[in-house]
Amino acid sequence: MKYALVWLLALLLAACSDSEPAKEPPAEQQDVAAERADLPATHEAQAAADRRRSEWLLIEHAGWPKKPAASLDSPILEPGISTPASRPAQVGDRPLLAIVIDDVGQSYAQGRRLIDLPVPIALAILPQTPAAARLAEEAHARGQTVLLHLPMENGAGLSIGPGGLFAHMSREELLASLVDSLGRLGPIQGVNNHMGSRLTAERAPMDWVMGELRKRGLFFVDSRTTAQTQAAFAADAAGVQNLSRDVFLDNKREPEAIHREFQRGLALARKNGYAVLIGHPYPQTLDYLERWLPGLADREGVQVVSLQALLERKYAPTQTSD
């Protein structure tokens, strides 16, 4: 019996030694696996970032007066159905709408959804995030506008992440941090502020920022996280072309709330000739934009354009009569 067990064990060992070695997966499967492993943010990390963003939006904007929006409320209709406010216009006469998506750079997948939208979109990319450089390069190659989403001190004491500018910094410290952030994304067209309710209310730091942007030929978009912002005044004084945010698209992420704010942006564009919407790469926001932006110009009479097109309209020479 003892010898029989030894003989059986020897047979099993021989069978194991004769088995084929594990094969590597095909090259295309390896590429897919590498691509997935290279994604800069997991679903859990992105969900946590979304929660933090929602929290600071609520705190940062808590002091803003709530404007009555009853006249701008609009039911959610299918994109193919025009709203009663739609007024088709000639292309040259159409109101213009520019859309900026802040806080890009944590998730490559979300950034690609923005790049692939069928209209001009400005990606405001945080400088020291995992997918920042890659998304900036791909957006630039696709012809989308790339902004440095520059972290600035807020009045609520919330963390702003690496590369931030603070009111206590000296001019030399602030400019050193600014120059470092400007060099991280490759070609960019402009800058806008991430948070910043404290810093943008300080004229001297904003003068320093605008002086550097003027030297580089960059424009500035003020997210207007405080009613006391000095950004536009400093930009005008420095000769930096600038725009200001009109509507935050997704302070509330429910589809009905996003739709209501989008309609408010359309109404402001019709009233003033153009408007700037700022949103964030939430799944709900991306879903809404992918659904509503195709065919918007024909459906609503408002043209989605780049920030540069808005700047051209804002700074177009005024016609004077002889």
From TrEMBL:
Protein name per UniProt: Divergent polysaccharide deacetylase family protein
Pfam families xref list: Polysacc_deac_2
Signal peptide location: 1-22
InterPro entries assigned to the protein according to its UniProt record, in alphabetical order: Divergent_DAC (IPR006837), Glyco_hydro/deAcase_b/a-brl (IPR011330)
Claim: NAD is one of the keywords in the record: no
Superkingdom, natural source: Bacteria
GO process terms (BP): carbohydrate metabolic process
Region: Disordered, residue numbers: 20-46
Organism: Halopseudomonas laoshanensis
Keyword presence, Signal: yes
Gene3D superfamilies with a match to the protein in the record: Glycoside hydrolase/deacetylase
Keywords of the record: Signal
